[in-house]
Write a structure and sequence with these properties.
Blueprint (H helix, E strand, L loop, with lengths): L5 E9 L2 E2 L4 E4 L5 E3 L5 E6 L4 E5 L6 E4 L7 E2 L9 H4 L4 E2 L4 H5 L15 E7 L6 H10 L1 E5 L5 H19 L14 H4 L2
Protein backbone atom coordinates (compact mmCIF):
# COMPACT_ATOMS: atom_id res chain seq x y z
CA UNK A 1 0.00 0.00 0.00
CA UNK A 2 1.37 3.41 -0.98
CA UNK A 3 1.41 6.37 1.33
CA UNK A 4 -0.17 9.59 0.12
CA UNK A 5 1.79 12.82 0.13
CA UNK A 6 0.18 15.34 2.48
CA UNK A 7 0.48 19.06 3.05
CA UNK A 8 2.11 19.52 6.44
CA UNK A 9 1.63 22.94 8.05
CA UNK A 10 2.16 24.81 11.28
CA UNK A 11 3.97 27.64 13.05
CA UNK A 12 7.64 27.88 14.03
CA UNK A 13 8.30 30.08 17.06
CA UNK A 14 10.84 30.80 19.77
CA UNK A 15 10.49 32.27 23.28
CA UNK A 16 9.47 35.66 21.83
CA UNK A 17 6.88 34.46 19.33
CA UNK A 18 6.62 33.41 15.65
CA UNK A 19 9.84 33.34 13.60
CA UNK A 20 9.73 34.72 10.03
CA UNK A 21 12.29 33.13 7.71
CA UNK A 22 12.88 29.87 9.62
CA UNK A 23 13.87 26.92 7.43
CA UNK A 24 11.74 23.79 7.22
CA UNK A 25 13.18 20.82 5.30
CA UNK A 26 12.07 17.27 4.62
CA UNK A 27 15.14 15.36 5.81
CA UNK A 28 16.91 13.38 3.10
CA UNK A 29 15.26 15.34 0.26
CA UNK A 30 15.63 18.69 -1.46
CA UNK A 31 12.12 19.75 -0.38
CA UNK A 32 12.24 22.84 1.78
CA UNK A 33 10.21 25.89 2.77
CA UNK A 34 10.59 29.03 4.86
CA UNK A 35 8.16 30.45 7.35
CA UNK A 36 6.23 33.57 6.40
CA UNK A 37 5.93 36.82 8.34
CA UNK A 38 3.71 35.08 10.94
CA UNK A 39 5.99 32.06 11.35
CA UNK A 40 3.65 29.85 9.28
CA UNK A 41 4.85 27.21 6.82
CA UNK A 42 3.46 24.48 4.61
CA UNK A 43 5.35 21.70 2.85
CA UNK A 44 4.47 18.44 1.11
CA UNK A 45 5.69 15.26 2.83
CA UNK A 46 4.66 11.75 3.82
CA UNK A 47 3.65 10.38 7.22
CA UNK A 48 6.87 8.93 8.69
CA UNK A 49 9.16 11.48 6.99
CA UNK A 50 11.22 13.73 9.25
CA UNK A 51 10.95 17.51 9.18
CA UNK A 52 14.01 19.53 10.17
CA UNK A 53 13.39 23.02 11.58
CA UNK A 54 16.27 25.49 11.77
CA UNK A 55 17.09 29.14 12.30
CA UNK A 56 20.42 30.86 13.11
CA UNK A 57 21.35 30.80 16.80
CA UNK A 58 18.50 28.37 17.61
CA UNK A 59 18.83 24.62 18.08
CA UNK A 60 17.87 22.65 14.95
CA UNK A 61 15.01 20.27 15.71
CA UNK A 62 13.76 17.15 13.90
CA UNK A 63 10.25 15.75 14.17
CA UNK A 64 8.80 12.56 12.68
CA UNK A 65 5.59 13.42 10.82
CA UNK A 66 2.58 11.74 12.42
CA UNK A 67 -0.10 14.31 11.54
CA UNK A 68 -0.73 17.28 9.23
CA UNK A 69 -0.23 20.08 11.75
CA UNK A 70 3.14 20.48 13.45
CA UNK A 71 3.82 23.55 15.57
CA UNK A 72 7.28 23.82 17.07
CA UNK A 73 9.15 26.11 19.45
CA UNK A 74 12.88 26.35 18.83
CA UNK A 75 15.21 27.02 21.75
CA UNK A 76 18.28 29.27 21.90
CA UNK A 77 21.55 27.51 21.08
CA UNK A 78 23.72 28.78 23.92
CA UNK A 79 26.94 27.58 22.29
CA UNK A 80 26.31 29.56 19.10
CA UNK A 81 25.57 32.75 21.04
CA UNK A 82 29.06 33.02 22.52
CA UNK A 83 30.76 35.83 20.57
CA UNK A 84 34.25 34.29 20.81
CA UNK A 85 33.10 31.28 18.78
CA UNK A 86 31.64 33.54 16.10
CA UNK A 87 34.65 35.77 15.45
CA UNK A 88 35.61 34.10 12.19
CA UNK A 89 32.19 33.23 10.78
CA UNK A 90 29.46 35.81 11.15
CA UNK A 91 25.92 34.52 11.46
CA UNK A 92 22.79 36.21 10.13
CA UNK A 93 20.96 38.77 12.20
CA UNK A 94 17.74 37.57 13.73
CA UNK A 95 14.87 39.64 12.39
CA UNK A 96 11.77 39.46 14.52
CA UNK A 97 8.16 39.43 13.40
CA UNK A 98 7.87 42.87 15.03
CA UNK A 99 10.72 44.14 12.80
CA UNK A 100 9.01 42.83 9.66
CA UNK A 101 5.59 44.20 10.62
CA UNK A 102 7.10 47.65 11.29
CA UNK A 103 9.26 47.77 8.17
CA UNK A 104 7.10 50.47 6.54
CA UNK A 105 6.76 52.56 9.70
CA UNK A 106 9.03 55.61 9.20
CA UNK A 107 9.42 56.01 12.99
CA UNK A 108 10.54 52.42 13.56
CA UNK A 109 14.30 52.01 13.60
CA UNK A 110 15.76 48.61 12.88
CA UNK A 111 18.59 48.41 15.40
CA UNK A 112 20.61 45.21 15.61
CA UNK A 113 24.07 44.49 16.98
CA UNK A 114 25.98 43.57 13.84
CA UNK A 115 29.38 43.11 15.45
CA UNK A 116 29.09 39.32 15.13
CA UNK A 117 26.23 39.14 12.65
CA UNK A 118 25.43 39.79 9.01
CA UNK A 119 22.36 41.13 7.32
CA UNK A 120 20.93 39.43 4.25
CA UNK A 121 19.88 41.27 1.11
CA UNK A 122 17.41 39.45 -1.10
CA UNK A 123 17.62 39.52 -4.89
CA UNK A 124 15.73 37.33 -7.38
CA UNK A 125 18.73 35.66 -9.02
CA UNK A 126 22.15 35.51 -7.46
CA UNK A 127 25.25 35.15 -9.56
CA UNK A 128 27.73 37.27 -7.66
CA UNK A 129 30.12 39.57 -9.48
CA UNK A 130 33.36 40.90 -8.07
CA UNK A 131 31.56 44.15 -7.19
CA UNK A 132 28.87 42.20 -5.33
CA UNK A 133 31.52 40.42 -3.25
CA UNK A 134 33.20 43.74 -2.46
CA UNK A 135 29.83 45.17 -1.40
CA UNK A 136 29.21 42.18 0.91
CA UNK A 137 32.57 42.69 2.61
CA UNK A 138 32.34 46.46 2.85
CA UNK A 139 28.83 46.56 4.34
CA UNK A 140 28.90 43.22 6.24
CA UNK A 141 25.96 41.74 4.33
CA UNK A 142 25.26 38.62 2.33
CA UNK A 143 23.22 38.51 -0.87
CA UNK A 144 20.66 35.73 -0.82
CA UNK A 145 18.24 34.17 -3.32
CA UNK A 146 14.54 34.35 -2.67
CA UNK A 147 13.18 30.93 -1.77
CA UNK A 148 9.63 30.16 -0.62
CA UNK A 149 8.51 33.39 1.02
CA UNK A 150 6.07 35.89 -0.36
CA UNK A 151 7.52 38.90 -2.16
CA UNK A 152 6.03 41.02 0.65
CA UNK A 153 8.29 39.29 3.20
CA UNK A 154 11.44 39.95 1.15
CA UNK A 155 10.35 43.51 0.43
CA UNK A 156 9.78 44.14 4.17
CA UNK A 157 13.09 42.51 5.15
CA UNK A 158 15.09 44.49 2.57
CA UNK A 159 13.30 47.67 3.63
CA UNK A 160 14.67 47.13 7.15
CA UNK A 161 18.17 46.72 5.72
CA UNK A 162 17.78 49.88 3.62
CA UNK A 163 16.73 51.82 6.75
CA UNK A 164 19.77 50.54 8.59
CA UNK A 165 22.05 51.46 5.66
CA UNK A 166 20.56 54.98 5.37
CA UNK A 167 21.14 55.61 9.07
CA UNK A 168 24.67 54.17 9.13
CA UNK A 169 26.06 54.99 5.67
CA UNK A 170 23.84 57.83 4.41
CA UNK A 171 23.60 57.29 0.61
CA UNK A 172 27.04 55.83 -0.21
CA UNK A 173 25.71 52.24 -0.33
CA UNK A 174 22.95 53.08 -2.83
CA UNK A 175 25.31 53.38 -5.81
CA UNK A 176 27.04 50.08 -5.01
CA UNK A 177 24.14 47.73 -4.26
CA UNK A 178 22.78 45.32 -6.91
CA UNK A 179 20.09 47.05 -8.92
CA UNK A 180 17.87 43.92 -8.94
CA UNK A 181 17.61 43.94 -5.13
CA UNK A 182 13.99 43.49 -4.11
CA UNK A 183 12.32 46.76 -3.11
CA UNK A 184 15.35 48.91 -3.95
CA UNK A 185 13.71 51.19 -6.48
CA UNK A 186 10.55 51.97 -4.53
CA UNK A 187 11.88 52.05 -0.95
CA UNK A 188 15.30 53.63 -1.03
CA UNK A 189 14.86 56.87 -2.92
Amino acid sequence: MFSQELIIFGVVSDYSGPIPGANVRVKGTIKSAQTDIDGKYSIKAFIGDYLEFSFPELITHEICIQKNEINIRLEKDLESSIPIEKKNWPDYTIVSAEDIKNSNNPNYYFDKDLKYNKLKIYSPYISLSENDLKFELKYNVSYSNIINQSIEFYDAYNNLVFKYFKKKYSRTWHKEIRKDTIGLNKKSK
